[in-house]
Structures are given as C-alpha cells and as structure tokens.
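Researcher: Please generate the 3D structure of the following complex. Treat every line as part of one assembly.
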Amino acid sequence: MSDLEPGRTADIILETRGLTKHYGGVHALEDANFVLRKGEHIAIVGDNGAGKSTFVRQITGVEQRTRGDIIFDGGSVNFAGPLEAREAGIETVFQTLALADDLDVPDNIFLGREMTKWNWLGPFRLLDYKAMREATIEGLNKTAVKIPNIRNTIKNMSGGQRQCVAIARTASFFSKLTIMDEPTAALGVQETAQVETIIKALKEAGEPLILISHNMRQVFDLVDRIIVFRRGRICANLNHQDTDPQDVVAYITGAKTGKEYEATAL
Amino acid sequence: MAETSHGTGGLTFDKSKRSWPSELNILLALIIIIVVFEIIGQTAPYMRGQSFLFDTKDRFDSIFNEARLKIIILQVAIIGIIALGVTQVIITAGIDLSSGPLVAATAMIAMSFAQTELVNGYPNPKAVFGVWAMDLPVIIPVVAGLLFGAMIGAINGTFIAVFRIPPFIATLGMFLICRGIALWWSGGNPISFPTEQYAFIGSGMMPVVWFVVLAVIFQLIMSYTVYGKHTYAIGSNEEAARMSGINVKRHKIRVYMVASTLAAFAGIVLSSKAVTAQAGMGEFYELFAIAMAVIGGISLTGGRGSIVGTVLGAMVIGVIRSGFTYVKLDGSYQVMAMGGIIIAAVVLDQWRQKRAAAK
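Model: Done. Output below.
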C-alpha cells in the first residue's frame, strides 16, 4: 500500500499489507500495514501480548500468516521457514540464541555457510579456518565487540558474550534486513552497551533494522522511527524527533492513538 | 597481548587460554595403568620380576617387548575400526547398537563372494554359490560388503533422522535384523576357504594398518572438513544447526552410513583374519566399540570428543586386557574391571565438565 508515502516504493525494503495472524479464536495480529525504508532503523514497542513477536514471526517465516501480503526487496514473498528468509537476506537474532555450545566463535558465526576450499570433495571439502578466523576478527572489530579469545567454546562465555556472538553472526554477513527480538533483555549494563554499539555500527553501514525492545532509553538512543503495537494492531507510527518516552507510553497503554489509526485501533 | 589475557579487549586468539585437551587426560590414564601393571610385575613374587612392556631378555635390538605391544594393538584394531564410526554417531548425540551383528552379516556376505573353487584340488566344501561366484577378484567381495554396510547405515539414518525413531530403538532393531541376516545367509553354516587376495586383507598386522590409516583419515575429516564441523554442530545444538541452514536429516543419514560402512569393513577384515565367516561373529563388538569411545572422552550427550580420544580409549582396553593376562588374573576379573573402568571414565568426565563450568 504505497499510499502511505506515494512515489517512494523504490526505497522500500519491507512492506506488509493487511498482515493478519489468528491462533484459533485469538486475533494476535490484525491488519498490520507497515513500511521500512532502506537504511532505516525502527523500533517496535508495545505491551506483552500486543503482537510484536507475532508480527516478526510472520515476516521471518517461523509461522505462516492467516492473510495479508509481505513485500520484501521489491517482490512478494512467502517464506516456508526461517531458513528461506535468511537466504533471501533477512537475518534474525531470536530471543532463544541459536548457537552451538561446543564450537568456538568463528565456527558459530560461519555455521551452515562455512568458507571452504577443495570444494570438489563434496561434503568432505576442507574448512578454510584461517579465512574464517580473519573474517571473524574483522567483523568483531567492525562491531567493536570484545571477546577475549575467539577460539574459546561458546559454553565458556557469559550471556553478554553469547549475545554478541549471535549478533556478530548477523552483522558479519551482508544482509538486507536485520531483526532483533529483545536483544538486551537478559543482559547487564556493559553487555547492553556492547549490543547497542553493534546496532549503531549497522546504522552507519546503512543496513536496515527492526528492533523489538521494552527499553525506552534504548529505543530513543538507537532508532529513527517507533511503531507502537496494541492488542494486535498498530496504533501509532512516530518519528523519533516528534515524540518522547512519556508520549510513547501513552500510546502503549491506550491513552493516545495515532491519528491515522483512530478508526481501527482498539 | 597483555590486554588479551585480562579479557578486556583484543581479538587475536590467546593460546595460553585454550583449554587442556581432554585427550591428554586419557593418555595420562593409559600411562598410569601401564605403570600399575609394571609395578605389579616387578614386585609380586609370583611374577619373578618380568616387565609388562619392556624387553627383559637383554637383547640389543629392542627396548620394548614387541610381541606384547603387537598383541595389545592387534586385539583392539578390528573393534577399533568400528569405534571410529561409533564415535561419529555419538558425537551427533546418537548411538549405534547394530555394528556387532553387522560385522557378522557383512563377513558372511563378503566371504561368500571371496571363496576359491578348489581346496587342495577338491571342490570347496563350504561353497555358498555356484562356480560363477568362485575366485572372483578381491574387489567384488569388498565392495559387496561395504555396499551392504552403507545400505544398513542408510536405513538406520533414515529411521532416526526422517521418522524420528530414537537411535537406541532403531539400531536395536537393526541389531536383531543383522544377526538374523547373518544366520539366514548360509542357513547357519560357516563360510570358509577364501582366495589368497581376500585372506591378505586381515593377515598378520594388516588389521592394525587399516585401523591406524582409517583413524588418521577420520581424525582429519572430523577436524578439517565441513562434514566434521556439521557433525559436532548437530550434537552440540541440533536446533541451532537447523536454524543455521545445515540439512540435519541428510547429514545424520550420512553419519550413520559412514559408521555402518566402517563396521562392514571391520567385518571384512575380521573374516579375512579368521579365514572364515560365522553367523555368531562380532558378539559384543558394538558394546566394546561404544566403551572405547566413552573411555576416550566422547560425550554421550553429543558435541564433544575426537577420534584421537577413541584411539586412546581403544588402547586403554587393549592394555587392560593384555595386562590382566600378564598378571595371570582370570578372564572374569578382566570383564568386571572393564565395566568398572567404563563407569569411572564417565564419572571422571562429568566431574571435569562440572569443574570447568564452575570456573
């Protein structure tokens, strides 16, 4: 529905039209119209059960939507699973981290897409450890993540370091869109700062991001635009400079509703 | 590098921070066991000062008791070949109980294509097939045996990965099926008189040669190839492996195929060494192979361990077997001690894991 901002469709990396998800009788997500432009960082906020994670799960193919369209990178998409979404260029950091505990940092970052040589050997092709290690160090330097020893197994790392590895994995590959679902919910102050540094680095690199967060300070520090979800519907679309934390809370709790959503929001 | 050791920054890897490889612990245990037998040999009055591993006959050309060393490694080599495959299965957090009977079934099948037509000028009394299957080139029985193994592995892997049957159950079923195939193949009769070429495969120290060569190959594969990395990844966190784009089903089938093909090869070597194939061969081999892996530090929950560890585990079992004979203790004690060592190995490993986690 390019009528949200006519004439700027070439700029749009992700758009949803009437995206809806019902779990039986529960309307978890209702008629979400959403636009994300290239290079833009947006936050999705809302109470528990407002439909934020449901929204993300439809986009990344973790679940199949009830109805509506998803247009990604100029074409309508139907991801059968998270893998297809990743292959199309959507990198997601899930709340449950998908890391292999017994492997080290480069192994995890390149899991499933290893750099190899002697490819004629098929499944027994050789791993290019040196290249992967160098790319990892380069990637971590770029994101300013500090991990004392990348040869250490994930098992021996703190929660923050694990989260950083999971995020560095996303950041190490050129992706068209990055989605993070509450990346700092379980982290301490320093670790949160590290994750935020990575997000800022993504912004500088011009990679678009959808951030789900409960942390107002973080949201206002990091993103350009804030989308508020309430009871399965989008109820506000706010520019960072036109709003403040109290205002956003008012939208979350239902004290206020965005003008363009007054007809539909509950 | 000063920064690095404080863990505050720097991204180059710090060798001093790499953890002590668990294989060294097994090597240490192996040395301790050897020393214990050596001490018993020197001090127990009935042993009359014999040495366990060293040459005591004052020959100039040898330091070690080569005959005993050869026996130690020879008696674990064939089961060791099975253990190389079982190790990979256990690293994926699976288990393979079917390898012992698979050894017997493969021995029967391969041997029946490896017979000579004439024994001392008379027709082969154990012939399974007609003249067409006699005096075939050695490649035919070997390939037939390996293909049979690969097929059994593919069936195991398919039931486990695609139909989600627990590995214990799927391979327990295959355990019985393979034993049945071994009995059915020649109606329970032994198959004997192989060609010279076939008899060479397992003659003399050849089983050790195969074991060492295959161990080196698979250690390299597990450490340096995509196959190895995905095997560890699946055992470590199957869900993460799937999310990362690894085709977990296909990979698991591959691992079970590799394991069963190795077990089939062990069956070929065993029948060649014994110059006969019998349906009852390979009894308890699957359990000894699992024991080698477990003593060698392969975690039954998956993700951890190495081929080197399994080779050391095989050596521990070899040394204990040989050592008990050396100190003239009855075979029954041997079996009991082996059981104790398997349990001790797992207890020690868990204790080590807990301590590492607490650090």
